[in-house]
Design a protein that fits this description.
- It contains eight helices and ten strands.
- It has helices at 4-18, 33-39, 114-122, 136-144, 149-152, 164-173, 187-207, 214-226; strands at residues 24-26, 44-50, 53-58, 61-66, 72-77, 90-95, 99-104, 108-112, 254-259, 262-267.
- The protein has a four-stranded antiparallel β-sheet with strand order 1-6-7-5.
- α6 crosses α7 (187-207).
- The two termini are 28 Å apart.
- The chain binds zinc ion.
- Zinc ion binds next to loops.
């Protein structure tokens, strides 16, 4: 499951290569054929994301895409306007004179009406990647919940776009115990989580990587500012997939357990704040 930064990155990429052009829109697989015919040859206005939801605005209509667990939306250069061959099961192809974007295996791909868009967004929590997003609705949900903060951070109706890696890493960075109920979390801790997600996920959008170790985050932020990104950063995270290793902050062993179907990694030694 991609995390929200990769959807925002994809939306930016699609906007960069298609906005202002009137691409061919087809469904090589056929399942989206009648909808594609309504979009074909119309002006591609923009793509945008909220959390893990992606929207394409083409010719006054909006397509909602959710990649789900296995979906992929690949943008390739179609050199010289030569259409690349279709490989695999392509639900949606967008093609202009220079680029092709192929959508395979999405959970959702359909044209939606304005009221449906409002409804979809209303069911999502605030998205840390939206400039100026108001975190208060997420705080209000935390305050009412007996579910653990570890579980709540994965709930897209609480905060949109957070996946498992950011969930584990932000709790470690903020020293918060993942098992504490949402309603026990202090406002200052929540503010720390939110500000950290804004920062980390923005680094993710620009680099295309989930980077959470502070030295690497600082290095990546400097590289983003100067426009020179490295291919790799030394160590992308602290606890995610580091179970059995010693915590670099306190020396305790990093642990792992299943929580709501996903592997939670944390340090029981130094993650004790509420
Ligand atoms: Zn520790």
């Amino acid at each position: 499951m991609p995390e929200g930064h990769s959807l925002h990155r994809l939306a930016r990429r699609l906007t960069a290569v298609f906005a202002g052009t009137s691409p061919q829109v087809t469904s090589p697989q056929g399942r989206f054929a009648s909808s594609a015919a309504l979009l074909d040859g119309h002006l591609f206005e923009r793509a945008w994301a909220h959390g893990k939801l992606l929207f394409l605005e083409i010719g006054g209509r909006t397509v909602h895409v959710h990649l789900g667990l296995i979906g992929k939306f690949d943008v390739t250069h179609a050199a010289g306007g030569i259409e690349p061959p279709v490989t695999g099961i392509v639900r949606l192809r967008i093609l202009n004179e220079q680029y092709a974007a192929d959508l395979r295996g999405p959970m959702v791909c359909r044209i939606v009406e304005p009221l449906e868009i409002e409804d979809l967004i209303a069911r999502q929590g605030p998205d840390p990647l939206q400039p100026g997003a108001d975190p208060n609705p997420a705080w209000a949900k935390l305050q009412r919940s007996t579910k653990s903060i570890g579980e709540l951070l994965m709930d897209q109706s609480v905060i949109a776009g957070v996946g498992n890696i950011y969930r584990c890493e932000v709790l470690y960075r903020q020293r918060i115990g993942p098992a504490y109920a949402g309603r026990r979390i202090k406002r200052a801790s929540f503010d720390g989580i939110w500000a950290d997600l804004v920062r980390l996920m923005n680094v993710g959008v620009h680099t295309g990587r989930i980077i959470t170790v502070e030295e690497d985050v600082i290095a990546a932020e400097q590289d983003i500012a100067s426009g020179r990104l490295k291919a790799e950063y030394d160590r992308p995270n602290y606890v995610y997939q580091h179970d059995g290793e010693a915590c670099e902050r306190c020396g305790s062993t990093i642990r792992m357990r299943q929580l709501a179907g996903r592997k939670l990694y944390w340090c029981g030694g130094c993650q004790r704040r509420t």
